[in-house]
Design brief:
Layout lengths: L5 H19 L2 H12 L3 H12 L6 H9 L8 H7 L9 E4 H9 L1 E6 L2 E4 L10 E6 L15 E5 L2 E2 L9 H10 L5 E6 L5 E6 L2 E5 L3 E7 L11 E6 L8 H12 L4 E5 L8 H11 L8 E7 L1 H6 L9 E3 L11 E6 L6 H13 L3 E5 L7 E3 L2 E3 L3 H8 L8 E4 L1 E6 L15 E2 L13 H12 L22 E3 L13 E3 L3
Parallel strand pairs: 11-12, 12-15, 15-16, 16-21
Antiparallel strand pairs: 1-19, 2-9, 3-4, 4-5, 5-6, 5-7, 7-8, 10-11, 13-14, 13-20, 17-20, 18-19, 22-23
Helix pairs in contact: 9-11
Length: about 500
């Protein structure tokens, strides 16, 4: 029998050891090792790629090879997350621990004015800085500031969109002065009065997802013969299910058969909240029937039966306080996204012509994500689910599934077009004179939609053009809360 000599046996091993020694001395490898050690988020980035993006991400098969070649230390963690996304993905996002906890607990920390500013640009061509909504307890609330109030001066400096325009100089005043505390402001209130005051930011402000619950009585609007419920809902949050249950119980006990739900600034949220809302809005004949089906990537479905299409149909639960509605109006806009669109899409097969949409086209988010956390061991998730976020560092929300209703209909990528277009009316507080609410009540009482409101400012010609800037609202980005500024096409 012929056999290999000891030398023949050892040579390959020696050669391998020499290769390892040579590589260990390679300055390129030493540099890479040093960069890895210097990257404090390297483990988080690696975990994100291998445990989350390579498993849950909807476009996994499309990007997995490209992503494997990325060097995490070449990016900060936000840029690394963005680098791994598919080109068509405009929805996935991530945040830090503080942002997530603030959102989940409903407590804004670190200083806030407690208002959301916007501009009535679409249709009205008005770039004035107007209050879209204000949280109860806002530092501005005591001075009479409500939705529709316009900010005209900061620290005595003019920021009004007057004949001079909302210019670069005014933009800089806003950027440099608005977030200083204490600060002096002048607002023109909805009744036309100016109020000037000095206020300090709230260090912490507790917020709720239910901004307004109100019953509009027949004597408040011409032709109305029965009370109408109005529910302004800002976000679907699992920790605030009472913000749904309490108003709906109130509407049920009050015999409400016609309801307006204002979702124009609701960017979605947790499916526990959407499941809860569905139990109140769907007709009793729909109980037990499917309202949404989640479709996952094939790799994830191969790992567990939990992610197969057949196991991802979500039904409508029974609820003794469900509303037997004759009419349901949704007020929508570009900030209406995700779970908001999913609820509308899920109800359409069961309510038919009873369901109407008023306002502007929705955001267009036909998909959803799981909340994926780092660190992400089983023990870590047990702590997070118990409300202990001591170890939490990062939260990732990559798109993981697409939604369809019981008829197999998806949410349009470009959003739902409403039955009646209305521009967001930033000139009135929420009530019967506000354009969208008024349109719902007019249609309910007459069967027709009212005329559009009067344009506040004519479009400028080249001769009298003045530069104006658009301060994007939170919902213009999937990462709600960023304050982006861009030059306006006026």
């Amino acid at each position: 029998m012929k056999g290999k000599s000891i030398l023949q046996t050892l040579l390959p091993a020696v050669a391998f050891l020499l290769i390892l020694l040579f590589q260990g001395c390679n300055p390129i490898d030493r540099e890479e090792k040093a960069r890895i050690e210097a990257d404090t988020d390297y483990e988080a980035k690696s975990f994100l790629r291998t445990q989350y993006m390579d498993v849950y991400y909807w476009w996994r098969d499309e990007v997995i090879t490209r992503n494997a070649a990325l060097k995490p230390y070449n990016y900060d963690i936000y840029d690394f997350f963005d680098a791994m996304l598919a080109k068509q993905d405009r929805w996935s996002w991530m945040c830090d621990k503080e942002t997530y906890i603030s959102d989940e607990t409903g407590v804004i920390s670190g200083g806030t004015w407690g208002v959301s500013l916007g501009q009535a640009v679409e249709y009205y061509h008005d770039y004035g800085l107007r209050v879209r909504y204000i949280y109860p307890g806002s530092p501005f609330e005591r001075y009479g500031v409500t939705r529709g109030a316009v900010l005209t001066r900061i620290n005595g400096q003019n920021v009004e969109d007057d004949e001079e325009g909302f210019t670069d100089a005014k933009l800089k005043i806003y950027q440099n002065e608005y977030f200083k505390s204490p600060q002096t402001f002048t607002f023109r209130l909805v009744d036309g009065r100016d109020t000037t005051f000095t206020a300090s930011m709230a260090d912490k402000l507790s917020t709720r997802t239910n901004l307004i619950t109100h019953i509009i009585q027949p004597d408040e609007f011409p032709g109305l013969t029965a009370p109408v419920g109005y529910f302004h809902y800002l976000a679907f949050k699992a920790n605030f299910l009472d913000d749904i249950a309490d108003p709906m119980q109130y509407f049920h006990d009050s015999g409400i058969r016609n309801l307006i739900i204002d979702l124009r600034y609701n960017g979605g949220g947790d499916s526990k909240a959407s499941d809860t809302l569905m139990t109140y809005l769907a007709p009793k004949s729909a109980v037990g029937k499917t309202y949404v089906v989640r479709k996952h990537n094939s790799y994830l479905a191969s790992l567990s039966d939990d992610f197969k299409d057949s196991n991802n149909s979500y039904g409508i639960g029974a609820n003794a306080a469900s509303l037997d509605l004759d009419h349901l109006y949704f007020i929508t806009g570009p900030g209406t996204a995700s779970a908001s669109e999913m609820v509308i899409n899920g109800l359409r097969p069961y309510l038919g012509e009873k369901l109407k949409m008023v306002g502007d086209t929705t955001y267009g988010k036909p998909n959803g994500m799981y909340v994926l956390m780092y660190p992400g061991s089983r023990e870590d998730y047990q702590a997070y689910n118990a409300g202990n976020y001591a170890k939490l560092q990062w939260v990732f929300l990559p798109i993981a599934f697409f939604n369809q209703n019981s008829l197999g209909e998806s949410i349009p990528w470009d959003g739902f077009i409403p039955d009646n277009y209305r521009p967001d009316d930033l000139y009135h507080d929420f009530g019967v004179e506000e354009s969208d609410i008024k349109a719902c009540l007019t249609h309910l009482t007459t069967g027709s939609w009212p005329a559009l409101p009067t344009v506040r400012r004519a479009v400028s010609t080249k001769a009298d053009y003045k530069p104006r800037y658009r301060i994007d609202t939170e919902e213009d980005s999937p990462r709600y809360g960023r304050d982006l500024v861009k030059k306006a096409d006026f």
